[in-house]
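From the pipeline queue, job 12 of 40. The input is one protein chain; the requested action is below.

Action: predict structure.
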Amino acid sequence: MPNFKVSTISTQDVTMAAAEGQSLMEALRDSGFEDIQAFCSGSCSCATCHVIIDADWFAKLPPVSEEESDLLDSIEGRLATSRLACQIPISGALEGMAIMVPPAA
């Protein structure tokens, strides 16, 4: 189970373990991060699982699809390393990745 460093506005950094094969959105939601609303349950249609990936890790993720980019464009606060957590599959290669969960809009 890979571990991730997660920070939010309301908490200090937390280390979270996630099972390979699930999405980052599922792992965050199941770990109780309240700012991950995941209204569409991972179907890439709502952008309520917006996360900011540490710049050192961003290039190691699968590329952003056009659909994901369009959804990210629709939210306030998109950064160069913004992603939708539902589009990031958990794998051992992501061990130690640092992410920030911005407040829910």
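Job complete. The chain is about 20% helix and 20% strand.
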